[in-house]
Amino acid sequence: MARARKVSAPLAADPPPRPRRGAPADTRLRLLQAAAEVFNRVGYEGTDSNRLAREAGYSAGTFYKHFADKRTVFLAVYEEWVAREWEEIGRVLSAAGAARQRAEQIVGVFLAHHARWRGVRSSLRALVATDTVVADFYRAQRRVQLDRMVTLSAGRRHKASREADVLLLYTLERAADALADGEATALGLRPAALRLCLVELVIARIRT
Amino acid sequence: MARARKVSAPLAADPPPRPRRGAPADTRLRLLQAAAEVFNRVGYEGTDSNRLAREAGYSAGTFYKHFADKRTVFLAVYEEWVAREWEEIGRVLSAAGAARQRAEQIVGVFLAHHARWRGVRSSLRALVATDTVVADFYRAQRRVQLDRMVTLSAGRRHKASREADVLLLYTLERAADALADGEATALGLRPAALRLCLVELVIARIRT
Amino acid sequence: MARARKVSAPLAADPPPRPRRGAPADTRLRLLQAAAEVFNRVGYEGTDSNRLAREAGYSAGTFYKHFADKRTVFLAVYEEWVAREWEEIGRVLSAAGAARQRAEQIVGVFLAHHARWRGVRSSLRALVATDTVVADFYRAQRRVQLDRMVTLSAGRRHKASREADVLLLYTLERAADALADGEATALGLRPAALRLCLVELVIARIRT
Amino acid sequence: MARARKVSAPLAADPPPRPRRGAPADTRLRLLQAAAEVFNRVGYEGTDSNRLAREAGYSAGTFYKHFADKRTVFLAVYEEWVAREWEEIGRVLSAAGAARQRAEQIVGVFLAHHARWRGVRSSLRALVATDTVVADFYRAQRRVQLDRMVTLSAGRRHKASREADVLLLYTLERAADALADGEATALGLRPAALRLCLVELVIARIRT
DNA sequence: GATGAATGAGCATTCATTCAT
DNA sequence: AATGAATGAATGCTCATTCAT
User: Which chains touch D (3 or more CB pairs under 8 A)?
Assistant: First the structure.
């Protein structure tokens, strides 16, 4: 019945779900948010640009007024995602508190973020492996992240080697993905125990 | 004249790259190997099934005689890949030797394998996130790996927690990917230093 | 009713209008012929590649197995067209006969051909003006035509200047287009009179 | 800093290229002129109506306030173009002078005009072949041109046949296009020689 | 009068899959 | 067992046109 509406009852106009005219920045934002959700749910390759637009309440053409192409939104989504994560981590790190408590918070932020954006992350890694534009963008982002991380630890006596820092980052990331995937529990791991391991690693790093 | 060859002189046969008729198992294997290479080079989504067949020296139809669909070959490729990796690691672990030396070998195997199959791995992770069939297959494989890992450490006094084991595995994996990607060097890390860090982690684990 | 067929009566299979499997050359030819007709009727820009395929009795994908893209078929159509025209003109010129009679035949061939392929011709000229690939192809073809024309007049005492030759060619072409368009009659011209003028021009050239 | 201008400093207004509000006739004229340039450069099909407006310094909507659609502007552009050409030719013809001198001027005007508006002309011919509205408009214009041409030759003793007149017109047009295209030189013709041939044809016609 | 955000049908092209040979 | 021509739904993207402001 509902399906037939559009064809058989042109008189009963459906209410336009979105403002027909709005500030471009708002539109862009809505498109970006919708894209983030869709990419996260079905992956980069699982989506088509028309759907991205429709999901945000717009038509196909509107999408291309705001983003050059599908890859471009994807990168924008990723950029946004990274920014948010480090914003939160920065907040935690700059706050006072016992080492353990702060470590727990850091791990918490990581896990939550990766659980939330698991689909985007895995699409990202697949694209990095095959698309040079994405690869370049990704590396630039990572470098910024790492520099920030180093900055954060500026006050410590013994600077950890850049390598050790990165390795910790990688461990956190990969574990977060595994928890998000359900891979961890599928392997019979207890999430709480895994989490504890991570916290210990972070504490060791903070204390150095 | 030469230019016309391909069109006008089918008699001057190009070397038939593959036997036109062979044992099914051979055909399957050749298709599998070609698929592994292609997936690794251009990713799952970047591959088209006709090309998979052609690259192995067969036609489109032959491919579908041996594999139900594209996903199926992909899983077969993955399975094969995991098997090879653990075969090698098993060899290393069962060999005698000083802890450091064995740790270096293990890290070496990991890094080499991940560098070699980087494209397949990133495609895999993207699929795991969106395709339930792939996800299930992947988890089953992982469980087998982990069990094997636990078996390998059977002789040690203090059994490491399953969680710590997995975490080490994750760290190795992620670091191997980063080295393979070029991400590590792009971040200004010294591969040798990174490698050393990994070796230390493995030693700590072996010694326990 | 008919519209619903495909959905509601899969049992009543429509007869496949074309052989499901045929020699590639045949398929290519059918596609080429259909394309020629469609381009001629609705112009290059008025056609979409799917229609081109469907009109030949094939599906969208088949088209792209035989031609790299829309432009490529168009050039193939043009090439074919030129070849046919000069084939006929060559036949006329190499035949014996009084100058007037041969001139009438030449004009006849020109007018008939241009009337027949008027749409292709005008699309061609529009593309030549904007698409460099088409422009290059076109010029190469024209040069061949002109050389052939010069060859044909090899036996004459006073060689006409290349410029005069071309000018005659142009006059014939443009007049043929005008007749084909209906432009000539719309201007109140008598086709027979126009034709006579052309014949006189050709005679003057042949006799030189 | 400079880079950021466009984004962050809307205050530093770029010079407003056009008055935001003006006499409708002015707006229309500006749109028309911009359209002429764009059509000429990239052809009718290569132009998008938004660009037409923007190039004139207006927005998409404004365009449609002044012209019913894309085709309508195109016809207006064409009309304008024809008017200009005949204005100039009229000036030449009504001036005194030796036959040769006047013929040279006429040919000059033709060649210059066609070189200048080559893109518009070829788009026009493509549209005439497929779009009845354009075809009708075109024929009406041509009739006016021809009548004017006949008028111009009113004083001569022997009226040339209408057909011969048109044929001369066609030769001039086609040759002018070929020179504008670069087709003529690509065929190895010497522009000066071609031009001379045309002048002779015009002289013959003027003298009659 | 002018704007420009939004529309949505349309288009060129690709690719996993089938099936007659 | 192998072929490869054919399919056709799907995809990324464009553009003439509208209309609320």
Answer: C
